[in-house]
Amino acid sequence: MTKPNDFTVDEERVRKLATLLDEAKLTEIEYAWGEHRIRVTRSPAPIASYAAPIAAPAAAAQPLPAEAHAATHPDAEFANHPGAVKSPMVGTAYLSPQPGAPPFVRVGDTVSAGQPLLIIEAMKVMNQIRAPKAGKVGRLLVTDGNPVEFGQVVLVLE
């Protein structure tokens, strides 16, 4: 039996292990016999990353005719209306203060300045949208629980 300090490296065994490591495309191999162990490792080959091809620039967008723009953006015809109430943020519109409750306003309702019209939830915060002036609700351009964009007309006061 050999003493721990008497261990000598069996170069031929290490070469065989290194050859096996290369042939099997391994990064590490360990061999044990009796009280002895040999571990042969190598750094793994660099991992080639896949780069997605760069998309070609899109062709310049042609402006839509006014009627096509109005068809794709139902609030477009009201964008310059003096009674347009626009969303001050991106979020989700809610027409009532809580699920199952009656809506803040309906088409035809008369509202006073400062009266809540709807809620827009943005980043878990419920933001009341209030009437900027007194008037009659002429159009309601959002539906409950649907997303709204910044500057989107949500309601029109007559």
Describe the structure.
- This is Biotin carboxyl carrier protein of acetyl-CoA carboxylase.
- This protein is a component of the acetyl coenzyme A carboxylase complex; first, biotin carboxylase catalyzes the carboxylation of the carrier protein and then the transcarboxylase transfers the carboxyl group to form malonyl-CoA.
- GO terms for molecular function: acetyl-CoA carboxylase activity.
- Keywords: Biotin, Fatty acid biosynthesis, Fatty acid metabolism, Lipid biosynthesis, Lipid metabolism.
- Pathway: Lipid metabolism; fatty acid biosynthesis.
- The structure is a single chain.
- This protein is α+β, with helices and mostly antiparallel strands.
- The protein folds into two domains: 32 residues, no CATH class; 84 residues, OB fold (Dihydrolipoamide Acetyltransferase, E2P) (Beta Barrel), CATH 2.40.50.100.
- The protein has two helices and ten strands.
- The strands form three sheets. A four-stranded antiparallel beta sheet has the order 3-10-8-5, with no helix packed on it. Strands 7-6-4-9 form a four-stranded antiparallel beta sheet, with no helix packed on it. Strands 1-2 form a two-stranded antiparallel sheet.
- A hairpin with a 2-residue loop joins strand 1 and strand 2.
- About 4% of the residues have low confidence.
